[in-house]
Amino acid sequence: MSNKFIPIQTIQSLPNDLDINRLASSPLQVPSGQLYDTLLRPLHDLRISVTDRCNFRCTYCMPKDVFNKNYVYLPQTDLLSFEEILRIAKIFVAHGVRKIRLTGGEPLLRKNLEELVHMLSALKTVDGNSLDLTLTTNAALLAKKAQNLKDAGLSRITVSLDALNDHVFKQMNDVEFPVEQVLEGIQAAESVGFSQIKINMVVKKSVNAGEVVPMARFFKDSPHILRFIEFMDVGSSNAWCLDEVVPSHQIIDDLTKADMPLIPLPAHNNSETAARFQHLDSSGELGFISSVSQAFCHDCSRARLSTQGKLYTCLFASHGYDLRQHLRNLSLDQADLKIANLIQSIWEKRNDRYSELRGMANDSTFTDRQKIEMSYIGG
Ligand code: SAM
Ligand code: SF4
Ligand code: SF4
User: Fold this and answer.
1) Is the link from the previous residue into 214 a cis peptide, with omega within 30 of 0?
2) pLDDT on residue 359
3) Does residue 106 have its Cβ closer than 6 Å to ligand 2?
4) What is the mean pLDDT of the chain?
5) Which end of the chain is more exposed for a tag (fewer CB within 10 A), N or C?
6) Contact present, 102 and 112 (Cβ < 8 Å)
7) Mutate to test the pocket of ligand 2, among 48, 50, 54, 374 (most ligand atoms within 8 A of CB)
8) Residue 375: CB within 6 Å of ligand 2?
9) Domain 8-377 - what CATH class?
10) Which of the four pLDDT bands, split at 50, 70 and 90, describes residue 372?
């Protein structure tokens, strides 16, 4: 993909405002099977946020001073129903999506989520294969739900875990949630048959950087894949600053100094967010998601569907395109075709590459602009 990359000259060319009314009234098209954006990136992944609520208050995502008792969450009627999610997902799949990730907020807070998993697991890709259907969770409720999720057809699972030390973990989740229960959730997922669980650790220099080595040791001889994520400037409320980011190369150095040298592994595919590594003296795999120090926009094949049914073409977007209005205002067939048409037009005009441009920008006005919150759009 990278050799087909078309450079964009100016930061001013973002964001790409589309005339939604014009798009919505243009002739209807049949789903394409394969879509490319202006940078020749295919549409392969869809992340669906099923709730904007969460039982944690991770300081880098839903800080307590903003997400407090006065914060207004979406009313139930605003949320896409499972049937609505299925209809939109089906259209995305007809446009070439192969992987769907359920996220939030905390997706396991959405009542009967396993029913949605069951519905989505019946979808087939344009090549006739099963979807790669996965979920990212803080695992607070995983011990209770793992079996149902497995039975419903969930293919894989990602668990967020920022520390092993209980005190540090509680500082990160900010709701006094004990680390033991997350570990029990991982154990439960393992025992019902989820293998190679991805473990996401966001590293904030002043809070949990000291947990990097213990986490790597803990997962070294397990089948799970620990992934270090650079603290990102998502949303507008997490008080992001570059000083708090621990770049991936620093973590690799720290692990080497702690007698855990790593060797790189080849990528499974171009659009993989994590660079893969392996311990030199064990088969334990690790991943590095370096969205700040080494942007990977050139291969980004991800679309995001918000809890309310808005389509976002970038994690750092400031606006989305309302698909739900068509589901609720048009007849079944008309709505499906209109949405298919819209997705195609939006993706074919997509030129997002925020993280790459952030790296080139030399003042804070770029990162300071209003962005959608991660808890609303999903990670
Ligand atoms: N609540 C679920 C969870 O935490 O796994 C799913 C939603 S959460 C928004 C998805 C992922 O985004 C998590 O792995 C979380 O650690 C990551 N995340 C949230 N805010 C982030 C930030 N500012 N920088 C980097 N990763 C972040
Ligand atoms: Fe909740 Fe996940 Fe955000 Fe933490 S990262 S506050 S668990 S949505
Ligand atoms: Fe994709 Fe936007 Fe992230 Fe770049 S910044 S990798 S375009 S989501």
Assistant:
1) no
2) 74
3) yes
4) 89
5) N
6) no
7) 54
8) yes
9) alpha beta
10) low
